[in-house]
Amino acid sequence: MAMRLFCCIIALILLTGTPSAQAEDGYDLWLRYPRAEGPALSGLSGHARSIVAPGTSPTARAALEELTRGLTGMTGEAPAVASAPDEGAILLATTESPALARFSLDLKPLGAEGYAIRTTTIDGKGVTVIAANADRGLLYGVFHYLRLAATGAPLDALKIRESPRIGLRLLNHWDNLDGTVERGYAGDSIWDWWTLPEWKGPRYTDYARANASIGINGTVLNNVNAKSDSLTAPYIAKAAALAGVFRPYGIKVYLSVKWTAPMELGELKTADPLDPQVAAWWKAKADEIYAAIPDFGGFLVKANSEGQPGPQDYKRTHADGANMLAAAVQSHGGIVMWRAFVYAHDNPDDRAKQAYADFKPLDGQFADNVIVQVKNGAIDFQPREPFHPLFGAMPKTPLMMEFQITKEYLGQQTHLTYLGPLFEEVLKADTMAKGKGSTVAKVIDGSLEGHRLTGIAGVANIGADRDWSGSVFNQADWYAFGRMAWNPDLTAQAVAKEWTAQTFSPAPALVDPVVAMMMGSREAAVNYMTPLGLAHIMATGHHYGPAPWVSELARPEWNPVYYHRADASGIGFDRTKTGSNAVAQYAPALARKLADPKTTPERDLLWFHHVGWDERLSSGETLWDALVHHYDAGVASVSEMQATWDALRGQVDAERFAQTQAFLVIQKRDATWWRDACLAYFQSITKRPLPASAAPPAHPLDWYKAQSLSYAPGNPK
Ligand code: BDP
User: Fold this and answer.
1) pLDDT for 497-543, tens place per residue?
2) Which domain holds residue 244?
3) Which of 183, 256, 301, 557 to mutate to test the pocket of ligand 1 (most atoms within 8 A of CB)?
4) From ligand 1's centre to the CA of 381, what distance in Å?
5) Do 158 and 189 fall into the same domain?
6) Which residues are catalytic?
7) 612: CB partners within 8 A, 6+ apart
8) Ligand 1 centre and the CA of 477: distance in Å?
């Protein structure tokens, strides 16, 4: 009875309350549940008339609440909540429910997060069963059902079995305690540390709903450049408050830790991982955290990287450090995610080689509850990088993928550069570690080497902006990350379709052009920023806009000239035997391919080779001409995106239409700026004329060099 009343109230709020007044400012993300039309509406009226949901846990209630919310929005009517299934009922049941006994669903292999959805009959009545081993699975099953309904999929013959391929599907927030977000382009942090733990605003629940809807099951609350304060009692209480909000949605909290916390907070003289006092300090700290957050996930660590302290300061290895922390959380079931993003200021070797050099020798030395978190490429979240050579090189160590959802190097909040194709390209890349087909996806889902601890992390693009991600299209990157973390075999295109249908409308006249625009957008950015394997030629600090000429910064690898190596003879970083020999870090069969420019994929050519300006590429053009054409193609793609979007006027609500249109104007301006600045600079080196078809840059090189941006967002102070 109480439950029925509760659902009626929810439905009433949904039908009459404020959300519709603000429906299209992006706040509702892909969970808008607008009124369905045509066959989608009749499907719902036939198959989703009532709900039977015997579960009483907070997660079961969240599942029922979401289903009620979704169906109410899409049908315009609150579904009845019944105690026994009638014709057109949806039954939510776990294996504990006697109602499931009559079906042979074989749920066991689906694990704690999996679910099955089936249309079937009970006593002659047509029903839909959403079944799972645990309430978390039910919640995921509900979101799947709502996704089907919202994308207009038929609901009359469902036979679905799902379980996640990767265990830890985490967001990494680079959120600081002062409310700023490192590399955040969507406003301040959504964590209001100041008013926590007392005030737990409704946005925290919506955050959890959005994440649960795409299968994300953990969140690291604070920046990898961590402050020790996060581990003090007041901040543990704040984290515990957030954990309480997220728990019903299957989301655990984790914290980034600063290596020297025992010295800063515990007044110890050292942070040496082999010092028993240090180990004892961490053990006591872990116990304190688990007393407040019994299902705390564990620690994320950035150590000996970009000036952060770490075990190497005490002549210990990353494994020594990770294992000491792992011992502190082990009895509580916690884990340690140890980042492999390391490069040292005093190491003259190719930056792209340094993580491998540090970590490969440690393979097999990490404790069972340690997972090493590796960025997708060996430098740093570039528009395109070959996959990180550590994938496939540490068979005895579980490796976790780190993607960057926030687009530090891909146009930040204004450029429409859908990251699905980047994720897909990396996940499908073949490491060849155990012969053909040893994809990165198989490394991180544990299947290649039989690891049970598996994970994938995405650096969040979420902030306090009303639309969460700084632009409506940036929401697609959050969505794609979650969906592809659940199933790394999903294609970027399929995910873009789902997202577009839910975010705008399932009408093919809208979905087809929008998806086509999204699918080409990442390649467009590669073309107008860093084509043919170029990398890291962005402006210093904020990384927005071009600055390939920068050469005077203190550390060599801070300078774009370090990465592109353009000179009178050619351009590109020789990573073969005659250069840094980074290719040797890949499996031999792949290394052989990459050692020869002829067998290196052209998209990665200048990443691995220094190529003469007049060398011919597969198109028959010289390298210089091809480079110019790539830059031109990038700018042209943005013009096409503008035309596609303009043609959708009237099919998208005014607010989101106008913002996207304005952002595409910015993107076009920036793409042109990138193209002109890079060509002006590279031409000053190659001294070759532009091909006849190419327009000269709008300004002389010095004009581009003189541009500087103050107050760019997301830039750490
Ligand atoms: C780089 C960012 C920097 C991060 C660092 C990291 O520029 O702000 O702290 O990565 O991942 O991409 O630790």
Assistant:
1) 999 999 999 999 999 999 999 999 999 999 999 999 999 999 999 99
2) 168-503
3) 183
4) 9
5) no
6) 306, 380, 408
7) 569, 570, 623
8) 19
